[in-house]
Structures are given as C-alpha cells and as structure tokens.
C-alpha cells in the first residue's frame, strides 16, 4: 500500500513537471522519492501514536468499568450501616435507619415518584407503619416512650401492662434538590402523626395530629455550607460528616419514637455555617433555639417559696403558655473527620455547647427588680467504625452544666437559689452499640445507653418558707420524678421481606428494651428502682 502511494505521488509530480514544460532527470526523481519516503515515515509515526492513544483510552475505559464495579460492591457491603447518602427515600429517619440500610444500592436509580420543574427535582417519600407496642408497666406512652415516668411497683400503674396497635408512626416527607450556578441546594420537609393528640384520640376515630418534624434548607457552595430551619441538634451524633439528612445520623436502629436513652438530641430551629477544608474534615458552628428547662414534669424543680409564682413563668415546662423568656440562643460548635481504609469507613466528631439562663425577681413589693444570669458549657464526642466486615461499633458521650434539655428532656437545666439567682444542673449521657449485618436483608443491633443528673438543692431561706424545706432538684423529700439515673439496654432485629427500587419495600422492625429508673430520694419502704420491659413489632411499607 505504501509503495502504491509512493508511485502515485511520483507520477503526479512528473506529470506536473511535464505540464509545466520542465525536463526531469533521474537525479530529480531520486530526490523526490527521498522526500516522499520522509513524508511516509512521518505519517507512519503519527499513525502509531494515534493507535497507542486509542489503546490507552480503551485501557482507561476498562479501568473505569472495574472501578464502577468495585464501588457498587463497596456500597452493598456498607449498605447495612447507612453509609449511602444517595438513598432514594429520604423519609428513612434514624429511628428507621435499619430500613434505609437495606435499600438496593446497586439497583437504586431515580425514584419513580420524583418529578422535575425546570432544573429542580422533587422527591416525595415516607412509609406506612403498622405498629404493635407492649410494655410490662403502664407508662402512659404510645410509640414514644416517656423514659422519665416509668411507674414504680408500689403504684397501680406498676401492675398494669399496656398494649397499643397504631399507625401513628407513619411518616411523609419531601426532598427538593437543585443546582443553580455554583450553588447546590437541598430542602427537606418531614411530617408525622406523633403530635399533641386530644385526650380521647383512641376512643373512636384515632385521629392523630399531623405535625412538623423537620423542615430545613441547605446550601453548598465550593467549600462552604449553610443550613437553616428545624433540624436534629448538632449534639446528636452523625454516622458520616455533619449533614442534617436523617440518614446521616447515628440514632441506632430503634423503633421507639424517643430514640434511645444515651442519645442527646432535640429537633429545633437552628442555623449552621460549615467549612469543608478537604474531603475528610468539616468544622462549623450552629446557633440553636434555647429553652430554660426544669424537667419533663411540673414540680420536678422546687422554686423558692417567695418567688415561686413569677419563676414558674420563666421556665419550661412550668410555663403553661410555653413562652419562656430565653436570654440568647444556644451555641453549638462541631468538628468531624471521615476517612475510608481497606474498604471500611471511620467517623469521629467533637461537639460543644454554650447555653445561658436568666431570672428576674422583685425581692419585696415595690422594690427594684433584680436580674441574675448564669452561663453553662458542655462538650461531647462520638465515633463509629466498621472494625470487622459486617460489624460496626459506635459510641457517643455528652456532659454539661445546663444541658439537661438535650438529654431527651429527662432532667432540668437549672434550679433557682433562695435569692432568685439561677444555678445550673450537671448532667451527662452516653451510649455504646454494636451493629451486625449477617445477610443482605437482615440487620441486628445491640445498644446500652444511660443518662445521669446530679442533684442540686439548698435549704429555702426565702420569705414564707417552711422550716427545714429544701428547694432545687434531688433534695431531701423530693418526688421520685427527680431522677438520678436512667438506663436502657436494647436489642434490635430488622428483616426485609421484599424490596424493589421501583415499588418500595416491606420490612419488619423489632425492638426489645429493658429500662430502669433510679430517683435521688427513696422513701422508707418504697422500691429503689422502677423497671420496664417493652417490645416493638412494626410491619412497614416504605415508599420507593
């Protein structure tokens, strides 16, 4: 082929010269042949380079396909531990994270329920929950256990079991995403039926109140991230990063609407600013709605006799109108580190709390009002790691003076001295757990969590006080609602019966827990602890 091209080229050159009336010698022909050979060699070299580049492109494509396969295998291996932020159904909150963990990561594509308006994608989600709850004593709870009110055996409630069948825990949500220039925006709204029910809700219609759980907007731009709205507190531990999505959080596989003793949390309005220096680190600060808090029940904290009425309006839940006059929002800084090693993910974080309390009293009628305040601090940390294939260990802890509201509201944030000034209450909580995925459709979890509240009391010396009467929390003669410690070991088992990325999943969620509650003061002859065993069995259909 090359010689044919060379011959044709020579003939063309000779023809041109003849047409121009030029005489061609053998030397000229030889010179032309040499030039043509050089051209041919250059063309051959260029063609070889092109072939080499095509071969390299084919090899790169093969490597890309292998990498995709490896990523799918890794996603499937980690699916049991909620390590898949691309899950379609955003409704899978931490209290149902076992369901989220069992999505078909390698099959999940775009949700069949999603739709687009312009460049914005809307994805509805949720689940229908048919739940059965049984407790060995009557705590007065439905799907959300009142850990601080477990009845003692010397009361009628301590001898009555309770059973409830309900769809109250069903949930609906909407996730909205879009990219607008350099801005990556996500909005999320989540609702359930676990609100403030009327007293006769179980009489006939069982009309549970539809309420807001979460509602926030998150904006990412380059290395910065900003979020505002109602979300889980940053004191709540993450499984990955510092994100607000329910699947980002580490709230166990429990079915209980109150999560698990040992997990600090609120769902409140918050603004966050986060900086991501690289793919591993995230550091930020959050501003969260505050609440001057005296425990889960009226009378858990005893105020000075002289100022009991005005002080009751300055703290929740004593304030019947829920208009507690907070001095400032709570400040919550957080830093997190994530990495992967050997196909296993590791997450660690540290968090802080800055909170304040303020009171105002009139020492005597007609006197000038006296204002007092106190500032409290708290700190915590958490981590989780897949140390053996299919096994994940997780732990978290939090300790503070003034942060009792974040310990599932089981104890007070502050008490008040006889002179009307506030005094903060020390409290702490923590959890350790182990999660195991023995099969693709089976998840097991075992956890132990505890909460502790330090007593803070003093003799009441205010005007009109009875002799030898104590005020504050956990003092002599205090009620058995003044809890010193609450503990909960739990075992979870979640089994997926059927799932399809286009039609959803049918899942059975089981939880068995043992609870103990220990007050600071035990009257003579009364039991030292309250005990409760409870079991959840939930048959759930999850939207695709």
Name a few traits of the molecule.
mainly beta; Porin; 16-stranded antiparallel β-barrel; two-stranded antiparallel sheet; 4 helices; elongated; disordered N terminus
Helix tally? 4
Order of helices and strands: HHHEEEEEEEEEHEEEEEEEEEEEEE
Distance between the termini: 61 Å
CATH-level-4 superfamily name of the largest domain: Porin
Radius of gyration: 34 Å
Strand order of the largest sheet: 2-4-5-6-7-8-9-10-11-12-13-16-17-20-21-22
Class inferred from helices and paired strands? mainly beta
Description:
This protein has helices spanning 2-19, 26-78, 97-101, 308-312; strands at 115-117, 120-135, 162-166, 171-180, 183-192, 211-221, 224-232, 267-275, 281-288, 330-341, 344-361, 370-388, 391-401, 414-416, 422-424, 426-439, 442-453, 456-459, 470-473, 483-500, 504-519, 530-542. It is built from four helices and 22 strands. It starts with a helix and ends with a strand. It has two domains: 2-53; 82-542, Beta Barrel (Porin), CATH 2.40.160. The strands form three sheets. Strands 2-4-5-6-7-8-9-10-11-12-13-16-17-20-21-22 form a 16-stranded antiparallel β-barrel. It has a two-stranded antiparallel sheet with strand order 14-15. The chain has a two-stranded antiparallel sheet with strand order 18-19. A hairpin with a 5-residue loop joins strand 14 and strand 15 (422-424). 15% of the residues lie in helices and 42% in strands. The protein is mainly beta and 544 residues long. It is elongated.
């Amino acid at each position: 082929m090359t010689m044919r091209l060379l011959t044709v080229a020579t003939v063309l050159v000779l023809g041109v010269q003849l047409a121009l009336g030029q005489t061609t010698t053998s030397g000229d022909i030889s010179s032309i042949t040499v030039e043509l050979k050089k051209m041919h060699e250059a063309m051959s070299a260029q063609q070889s380079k092109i072939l080499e580049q095509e071969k390299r492109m084919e090899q790169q494509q093969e490597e890309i396909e292998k990498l995709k396969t490896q990523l799918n295998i890794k996603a499937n291996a980690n699916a049991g531990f909620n390590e898949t932020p691309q899950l379609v159904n955003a409704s899978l909150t931490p209290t149902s994270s076992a369901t989220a963990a069992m999505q078909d990561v390698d099959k999940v594509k775009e949700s069949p329920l999603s739709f687009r308006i312009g460049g914005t994608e809307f994805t509805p989600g949720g689940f229908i929950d048919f739940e059965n709850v049984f407790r060995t004593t009557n705590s007065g709870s439905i799907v959300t256990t009142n850990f601080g009110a477990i009845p003692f055996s010397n009361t009628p409630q301590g001898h009555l079991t309770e059973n409830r069948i309900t769809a109250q825990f069903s949930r609906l949500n909407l996730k909205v995403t879009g990219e607008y220039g350099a801005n990556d925006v996500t909005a999320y709204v989540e609702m359930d039926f676990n609100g403030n029910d009327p007293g006769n809700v179980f009489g006939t219609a069982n009309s549970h109140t539809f309420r807001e759980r979460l509602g926030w907007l998150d904006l990412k731009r380059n290395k910065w991230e900003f979020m505002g709205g109602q979300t889980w507190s940053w004191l709540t531990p993450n499984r990955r990063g510092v994100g607000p999505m329910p699947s980002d959080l580490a709230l166990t596989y429990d079915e209980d609407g109150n999560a698990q003793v040992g997990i600090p949390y609120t769902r409140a309005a918050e603004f966050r600013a986060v900086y991501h220096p690289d793919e591993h680190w995230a550091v930020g600060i959050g501003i969260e709605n505050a609440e001057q808090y005296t425990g889960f029940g009226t009378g858990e904290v005893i105020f000075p006799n002289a100022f009991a009425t005005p002080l009751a309006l300055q703290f929740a839940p004593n304030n019947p109108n829920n208009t507690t006059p907070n001095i400032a929002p709570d400040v919550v800084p957080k830093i997190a580190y994530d990495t992967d090693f050997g196909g296993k993910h590791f997450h660690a974080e540290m968090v802080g709390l800055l909170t304040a309390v303020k009171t105002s009293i009139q020492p005597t009628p007609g006197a000038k009002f006296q204002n007092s305040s106190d500032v409290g601090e708290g700190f915590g940390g958490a981590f989780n790691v897949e140390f053996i294939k299919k096994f994940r260990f997780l732990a978290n802890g939090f300790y503070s003076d003034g942060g009792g509201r974040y310990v599932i509201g089981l104890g007070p944030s502050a008490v008040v001295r006889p002179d009307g000034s506030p005094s903060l209450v020390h409290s702490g909580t923590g959890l350790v757990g182990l999660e195991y995925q023995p099969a693709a459709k089976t998840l097991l979890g075992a956890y132990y969590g505890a909460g502790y509240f330090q007593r803070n009391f003093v003799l009441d010396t205010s005007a009109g006080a009875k002799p030898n009467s104590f005020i504050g929390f956990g003092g002599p003669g205090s009620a058995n609602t003044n809890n010193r410690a609450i503990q909960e070991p739990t075992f979870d088992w979640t089994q997926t019966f059927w799932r399809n990325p286009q039609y959803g999943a049918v899942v059975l969620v089981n939880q068995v827990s043992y609870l103990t509650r220990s007050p600071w003061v035990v009257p003579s002859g009364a039991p030292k602890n309250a005990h409760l065993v409870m079991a959840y069995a939930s048959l759930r259909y999850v939207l695709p």
